[in-house]
Amino acid sequence: MSQTPPPSRRDLLRPIEMLGGAAIGSIFVGLIVLMVTREVQLAAIAFGVVFIVVLVALAMFALVMKPDAAEFEEIAEEDREGH
Question: Average pLDDT, whole number, for the chain?
Fold first, then answer.
């Protein structure tokens, strides 16, 4: 059996980047709703909804994006340096 190479650091950090981006967007919206309405429950609901929507959107963008020739070359170069 052939061994698969371990995932790169970039691949390992991608989910954390998505969660961070979703958190930043949802905190922003949650704070805006809290300042406008002064209702914590409504701000919490807005935070949750925006967090899920942004997270799903980022995941869909990540699935749709296909690497071009330059990215394939960079990936191959990183693999050569790592081994």
Answer: 87
Q: Cα torsion for 49, 50, 52, 57, to the nearest 10°?
A: 140
Non-local (6+) Cβ contacts of 62 within 8 A are: 14, 18
Other Cβ atoms less than 10 A from the Cβ of 37: the count is 12
**In degrees to the nearest 10, what's the CA dihedral of 54, 56, 58, 61?**
-140
62-77 residue pLDDT tens = 888 877 777 778 878 8
Question: How far apart (Å, rounded) are the C-alpha atoms in residues 64 and 52?
Answer: 18
